[in-house]
């Protein structure tokens, strides 16, 4: 379980991240969890004087979020990673690798995303 987590909406994201920057927090990283349904959880992690603060953003799989790279440029690495590996739609990245920062042209799409495979059984109705 992650401590010091605040749930936010995508509309609050940039404002909350800007407050962290203003208050002297450094951006540590962001992590993505595929919940196995149609939702993803994106966690943003910040540190100041060894105190971690975290924001949790719940997204529908097709929702788009704004990049925080205009506030913390270093976030472009993890935003590109989440986009490529999980299919998170991030708009306005300062540097967008277009799906090829980590993955080759012949790599599977979103390899870390849980794929929902439905197998139809014979005779099942």
* Percent range for β-strand residues: 25-35%
How many strand elements? 6
The CATH architecture can be named as 2-Layer Sandwich
Q: According to CATH, what is the topology?
A: Beta Polymerase, domain 2
Radius of gyration, in Å, reads 16 Å
Helix content: 10-25%
**Low-confidence parts lasting 5 or more residues at pLDDT below 50?**
none
Biggest sheet, spatial arrangement of strands: 1-4-3-2
Order of helices and strands: EHEEEEHE
Mean pLDDT: 90
Q: Would you write up a description of this structure?
A:
The chain has one domain (1-125): Beta Polymerase, domain 2, CATH 3.30.460. The protein has 2 helices and 6 strands, in the order E-H-E-E-E-E-H-E. It has helices at residues 13-22, 75-86, and strands spanning 5-8, 26-34, 39-48, 51-60, 64-66, 89-91. The termini are far apart. The longest helix has 12 residues, at 75-86.
Short key terms for the protein model shown above:
single chain, 125 residues, alpha/beta, Beta Polymerase, domain 2, 4-stranded mixed β-sheet, two-stranded parallel sheet, 2 helices, 6 strands
Short précis:
Helices cover 18% and strands 31% of the residues. With 125 residues, it is α/β, with parallel strands linked by helices.
Chart the SSEs and their pairings.
Elements lengths: L4 E4 L4 H10 L3 E9 L4 E10 L2 E10 L3 E3 L8 H12 L2 E3 L34
Parallel strand pairs: 1-4, 5-6
Antiparallel strand pairs: 2-3, 3-4
């Amino acid at each position: 379980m992650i401590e010091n987590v605040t749930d936010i909406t995508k509309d609050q994201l940039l404002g909350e991240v800007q407050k962290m920057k203003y208050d002297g927090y450094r951006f540590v990283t962001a992590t993505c969890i595929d919940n196995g349904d149609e939702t993803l959880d994106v966690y943003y992690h910040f540190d100041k004087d060894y105190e971690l603060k975290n924001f949790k953003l719940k997204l529908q799989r097709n929702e788009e979020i704004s990049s925080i790279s205009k506030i913390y440029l270093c976030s472009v690495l993890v935003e590109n990673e989440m986009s490529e590996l999980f299919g998170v739609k991030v708009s306005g990245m300062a540097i967008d690798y277009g799906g090829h920062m980590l993955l080759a042209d012949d790599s599977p799409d979103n390899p870390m995303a849980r794929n929902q495979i439905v197998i139809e059984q014979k005779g099942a109705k």
